[in-house]
Amino acid sequence: MTDPWVALEPGADPAERVRMLRRAHATFTAAGTAGTVARPVRPVVADSWRRSVRARVSPEGTARVELADGDLGAYRAQHPLARVMPLFRELMSTFAMDGEHLLAVCDAHGRLMWVEGHTGTRSRAGDMNFVPGARWAESVMGTNAPGTAVAVDRPVQVFAAEHFSRPVQPWTCAAAPVHDPHTGRLLGAVDITGGDRLAGPMSLAFVQAVARAAEAQLAIDRRPSPVERVQLNTLGRDEALLVAHGRRMRLSRRHSELAVLLARHPEGLTGDQLLLFLYENESMSPVTLRAELSRLRSLLGADLLASRPYRFTAPVDADFLLVERRLAAGAVSGAMAAYAGPLLPLSQSPEVARIRDRLGHALRGALVQRGDPQLLADWAYSPWGGDDLDVWQALVAATPRGAPERAAAEARRRDLDEEQSAPS
Fold first, then answer.
1. Nearby residues of 50 by Cβ (< 8 Å), 6 or more positions away
2. The OmpR/PhoB-type domain covers which part of the protein (predicted)?
């Protein structure tokens, strides 16, 4: 095979290749993490299978729909790839309809935003939740063209039993990543999905060309956003740092809590909702809250904070939301890298405390499940993780016997165990 990224070389027998791939897949999945990948599995597929096993993807798994109805519509409307959907349709719809294929576009987390094409094919794809709003990240669904394309950030083709999930193995797909031409940031991928006829080099070259055309269109389209994006840093800080309009602003603790709640709810919150989130059962006058919001608007600028409902008028890049997104995408190491500590650790707002606790528990749970000794050590030796017995136990289990790091971890685990077992 001259190109390892192409699934089926000219002259190969598709039926025979499928039989060989199924045997290799069955052998590998039965062996688990210790399994070896036999030929004719391509290296790109073998690497993806190994990542899938490490992420604990089930070979019998099906995709989960994460966005539906209004949430999906709002998410698609604000996504940069919405600007090139007319181009995707112009270039691919005839090919998809004539070949009984599907055109699919996913975001950088492998979440499908659009799935269009032949009606019968869409109906069959719906049986495995290959539908808008479903999550097809490699870390969730294993090897598949859109998920693997964003995982490795390059065009990829996946043929039949190369898919890690057995329910997906009747399908063949090819996908190519699309980047922001100005920043290089990965925006998502464009995919063509259908039958075995997509296994040759032409479909891979086709989606690659479509992705390049989309990037060229985005480069031409330099329309500025009405309002620039806002950066909000809240992790490991008692007072949030907000960056907007080229200014860096340290917010008071109350304003920090308001900023977190508004960033968490971009659709906006009423005054009554904010009162409940901030004070819950405590008695607090709405007048006091309105005064705080007025001071916050004066600080940020009236163009950045709207009312009725209260909301940011610009997209907010918040550090705690980044950790949430990376965890949702299965990028545990990336989530840990972005986690600078608990969210507003001194905040006593009931809703901020709930967000803080959920985020911390989700991250530490993902670390324990992943069992990576370096990530566990990063948490255990952090200011907030030093007394976390569960993480120290997981670190001991993940560290090789005889390693000096294990002896230190065992000593700390014993100390914590004794402290927590001692009568109060």
1. 37
2. 246-312
